[in-house]
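Hi all, long-time lurker, first post. I run a small reading group and we've been trying to get comfortable going from sequence to structure in the token notation. Rather than ask abstract questions, I figured I'd post a concrete chain and ask someone more experienced to write out its structure so we can walk through it together at our next meeting. Sequence below, copied exactly:
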Amino acid sequence: MDDYIGIDVSIKETALSIRRGGQRVWRGKCVSDPKRIAQIVRKHAPSATRIVFETGPLSVWFYHALCAEGLPAICIDARHAKAALNMAANKTDANDADGLAHLAEVGFYREVRVKGFDSMLARTLVAARTKLVRIATELSNQVRGLMKTFGLIVPAGHILSGARLHMGQFWVTFNNANQRRKTDGAP
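-- Answer (accepted) --
Happy to help. Here is the structure in token form:
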């Protein structure tokens, strides 16, 4: 007989529900690790037909890891699943997993395409580089602005080389200003 599994994924724990022949045959929780989930599925549902989970921050990892384990993973649209899961009386992770298993059993879901691991890796690296460039530019502008206060002008785009050249001058100017302040009796 075919087994249908619903997985409600969270950062720390994942709720699982296994249905067979219109009835729930097993329900439980485990750590959010695809290898552990694969062990549980093989133990409780040896003839898994569909393993359904919603889109989310961990869905790419879960999809590729479960497929690598040879399991029939299906990632479904979270908004579509939400409409069906909101009909449940009690909103818990276990009930959501059971609802997802029921959706898998009746085939009432909208599968989404999960991007390949390589494309997601490239996308992540580009996003990280973009963020680092933005941070470096903001830092550069901040240092240039601070140095202008003390009369040290560093041209835009030359902050790293210019800052190294002018940092010595900056500290000399800062120390001189500090000494003048102390000799003038300022606190």
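A couple of things your group might point at:
DSSP finds six helices and five strands in the chain.
Strands lie at 3-9, 13-20, 23-31, 48-54, 73-76.
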